[in-house]
Amino acid sequence: MSRRLAHERSPRDRERRRMAAILDEITDLVGTADPQGRLLYLNPAGRRLVGIGDDEKIADLHISSFHPGWARATSIEEAIPVAIRDGTWRGKSALLARGGEEIPVEQVVIAHRGPDRKVTHISTVARDLREALRVEEELRTSRERMRTILEHSSNVFYSHTPEGEITYASPQTRDFFDCSPEDALRGWSDFLTDHPENRRAMEHTRRALETGEKQPVYELEMESASGRRLWVEVNEAPVVEDGEVVAIVGALTDITARKRAEARRRELEEQL
């Protein structure tokens, strides 16, 4: 009895218990199989992922039964020989749950060798990619939706550096400034006229750069590449990273017709 207790308290036994506790808690699938592909071990997260009960024996299960047909070429026919040859294989594949669901995974396969250099077993760590792919698809859909809005809006959307160099201009620059978005990537001041209102209006941008806070909407008189003058309403905001303004983003609305109508009304009032 004393010998058995001493063995259970040995450093190797304590290390084995510690590793078992880690494998029980890890959220990725961790499993081992013999060189022929028969399962030897599957951690609780792996059992849940593919639908194996906690008390179900896995001695008669083969790893091929947990891969869809198309993925066996990657996970078994490619990964294991490469791992045996190079030590490890890393790539993307898929698992097949017992309910029939295909689960995309990122997988690492490792070949373990004994003192005689023969492969004793194969281990793998597989991470479920479903949530990551869902988020990626949502981001792609969101970007596509935003691109559609930017390209079909009647406004010009832009961004420029704190120094005033335009880094993005939406396709509507052709209608506003008689130039392509690529040709609009220059100094912001290149499009400004010498109208006195512009100097007062640009104070809003200066304060946004200094404070990192969004400023009120303002108006500018601008000049297109062909020399045509137009009035725009500017709605912009600073982009702040780590407490520092790194860019200004905004939208321009053409208010030329409104400004002309206001000027005409003032003329009529003066005449009256």
Short description:
This protein is of the alpha+beta class and 272 residues long. The chain contains eight helices and ten strands.
Question: What's the structural blueprint in terms of helices and strands?
Answer:
Layout: H1 2-8, H2 11-25, E1 29-33, E2 39-42, H3 44-50, H4 69-86, E3 88-96, E4 102-113, E5 119-128, H5 130-152, E6 156-160, E7 166-169, H6 173-177, H7 196-211, E8 218-223, E9 229-241, E10 244-254, H8 256-271
Antiparallel strand pairs: 1-2, 1-5, 3-4, 4-5, 6-7, 6-10, 8-9, 9-10
Keywords:
272 residues; 5-stranded antiparallel beta sheet; 39% helix
Description of the structure:
The protein has 272 residues and is α+β, with helices and mostly antiparallel strands. The protein contains 8 helices and 10 strands. It has helices at residues 2-8, 11-25, 44-50, 69-86, 130-152, 173-177, 196-211, 256-271, and strands spanning 29-33, 39-42, 88-96, 102-113, 119-128, 156-160, 166-169, 218-223, 229-241, 244-254. The strands form 2 sheets. Strands 2-1-5-4-3 form a 5-stranded antiparallel beta sheet. Strand 8 (218-223) and strand 9 form a beta hairpin. The radius of gyration is 33 Å and the shape is elongated.
Average pLDDT level: 89
* Morphology: elongated
Cα end-to-end separation: 115 Å
The helix/strand class is alpha+beta
Spans where pLDDT lies below 50 across 5 or more residues: none
| Helix run count | 8
| Biggest beta sheet attributes | 5 strands, antiparallel
Helix and strand element order: HHEEHHEEEHEEHHEEEH
Helix content: 25-40%
- What proportion strand? 25-35%
> What kind of assembly state do the chains in view correspond to?
single chain
Number of strand segments: 10
Rounded to an integer in angstroms, the radius of gyration calculated over CA atoms is 33 Å
Strands in their spatial order, largest beta sheet: 2-1-5-4-3
